[in-house]
Each structure stands twice: as C-alpha cells, then as structure tokens.
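Subgroup meeting minutes
Present: P.N., E.W., G.H.
Scribe: E.W.

1. P.N. recapped why we're keeping a running log of single-chain structure predictions: easier to compare across weeks, and new members can see raw inputs and outputs side by side.
2. G.H. added today's entry (427 aa).
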Amino acid sequence: MRLPDPRRVLSAAKPGSPDSMLSIYLPAFILAAGVSIAAPALPLYAKSFQVNFATASLVVVVNQLGAALSTLPNGYLIDRLGGRKMVLAGPILTAATSLLMATAHSFPELLAYRFLEGWAMQMWTLGRLELITARGGAHRGSQITGMFGMDAAGRLTGPAIGGFVAGAWGLRAPFVLYGIVALLSVVPSFVLVREHNAQGRRAVQAAVAEAPKPALRESLKALLTFPILLLFVSQFLSFMTRGALFGGTLDLYAVYAYGIGPQTLGFLALGAGLLGLPLTFTSGRLMDRLGRRTIIVPGFCLLGLALMTMATASFGHWPFSEYVGVFLFARLATSSISGSMQVIGSDMAPPQARGTFFGVFSLIRQTGSFLSPAVFAFMSQTWSFGSAFVLLSVMAFATALMTNTQLKRAPAVSAPVAEVAVSGTGA
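Output recorded in log:
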C-alpha cells in the first residue's frame, strides 16, 4: 500500500536551516555533552564500589552490550511505531538511567543501569537515522555527517565540566547533571515535524493508522538483496578498520610504545578532535554536491595510507614527535569519512523496512567496533604492533575497493518525492 508520508509535507530540511539546527544538530550536541560530562566520574565511581580493575571495566562492556543487543528490537520498533517516537523516548530513558546511576547502592545495580543506558542511546541514534533518511532528500550526507560532527563537538566540551562537578559536589553529581542534560535534549526534538497543512496532516495520519504494520519476517526479507548484503560486508570491514582507532586502543599503544602520560594523551585527543571537526562537516556537504563515491573512496584510501604509515613508524621505531604527525594524519582521515557508511545506508534503506535495516546496520557496526580492538591486541601480542597496523590498513583499502564497486553504478541521490511506502511512520 502506497500512501503519502506526513513527513513529505515538509520540504527537505537544508543543513543550515533552523529546522536542521533544532531537530538534528542541537540534540546531538546536547546529548553527547551529557555523556561526556559523566565520563570522567565513571571510572572512579565504579572503583568506589570496592571492585578490582577487571570487574570495574564491566561498566564499559555492559554499556556496549546494551547498545548491541538493542539494535534489532529498536529497529523493528521504529518500523512499527515510527522514528519520532523513538527519538523522543531514547533521551527520556537515558535521563532516567543516569539519575538512577546517581542513586546506585551496589555495583551490579550500576551495571544494570549502564546496560539500559546503552539501549536507550541506540534508540535515539537509530530513530534519528530513520528520520533523516525519510526526510533529508538531497541533503542526507550533510545532515548525517553533521549529526556525527556535533556529537564529536559535544564530547569535547563535557569532560572538563564533569571533572569540575565531581570535584565540587562528589562522584554522583555528574550523573545527575547528565540526566538533566539528557532531558533538555528532548526539547528541540518536539519541533522535528512542522506541518504546513493541518487538514492534509489529519488525512495522512488517518491513512497511516489504517496501513498494515510490517511483520519482522517481512522486514528482514526486504534486506536479503545482493546490494544490501554487500553494503553490510562493507560496513563490517569499515568498522573493523576504525574500531581500533577509538575506544582507547591508540592511547594504549602510545602508552606502551612511548611511555607518555595522561596529560599528553588528553592534548592529543583534543588536538585531533578540533582539527577533525571541520573535515567531518565539510565531507557531508561535498558528498551531497559531488557524490558519495568521490569523497568516501578516497577517504578510505587515505586512511589505509595513514595506517600503513603508522605500521612503518612502529617497525622503524620512529620518535614520538614523528608519531604525533602520523597519529593526526590517521585521525584526520577518519574524520573525513565519519558517518559515511550511514550516508550510504540512508540511500539504500528499503522504505518499508528502514528501522529494521538500520537495526541490522548498527548491529554490524557494533560487532566490528567490538572485534577490532580485540584483533588489534591479538596481532600486537602474537606478532607486533606494526603487523596489527598493516592488517587495519589492508581492511581500509578493502573497504575502499568494495565501496567503489558498490557505488560505481549507483544512481544519483534525489530529493524527497511525494509518496513513499508507509511502514508505521509514527511521525
């Protein structure tokens, strides 16, 4: 059944428009800032429950587990209920879990809330991707990379605030502030959809209410096409390449290889973040103007070259000053392709199963991000750091090759059309 989608009443939101700022960029920035506010207090808070290092590290593991396990259920709920409901529910649940973390009486209780937080954050991310896909049109590249860019900017601003709050009011205080900030991030989302015609809106909503909801089996079946399966493989390789570049793996390498301290690590992270932000925003606009293939394929090739240079630096025992340049090169290459696979996914997502598509898509991302540091550690321990970087470089070039093949004959991205297949929009 093909029915007009209420979101198509809108013109496609342009990247710099007030609608985009309020509905995409501002919530992403606020929520990321909240996450980073709690980050400095989390290790000390876990330690305060008198657990050892291995046990305390579960606060990170269970959060990632919650995000991974939620991908398929959240994706299916988006198809049933609509992306907008999930965008609103995610930060509210995040706020609740953060406030509960501030009142935790035991370490297992803290772990339960961290698991739910990971689940809630995935609700927001998948719901946002579905809505951008539905209404972004020719500006999807800018909107998706802009969302990731604002997320990165928010994460840069929070740690200093969180450290100050923890020092002034105790380790539980940053989680209270995180909960408040998460609630604030919901407010701009209420202006996601601005209808220009109330009568038309009511007619479309009535039609949507009568439309059949997709069964999970039907949604999954819509994903079993060769182009989508090839995209899933590219997504996996992409995050097998990049997963080790985040989450502390490169920090551990720098500590073990060069013996640097936390202050140096902090300056490296800050410098890479500040330099990479303009690239993230610019790459999305260029993808919309010049095409996905023109930006994404060279980006992964540059990342492969940067990783091969890091392997050379490791094999050759380059001094730390030279490693810094190579490190920044790798992080800048990563920033240039931030959100790129999600942009391709938004182009290819089947309209009748967008939520399920992004659920599977995100599960593959989480799996690659989880396995990448483990593979890097195994290669480093078994052979050498240099060989681990070589493997990452090979996977980056493989991603570029597969993406180039996939996008070579892809049609140009068009603006929103008047009708789409409705699948429980809930907008």
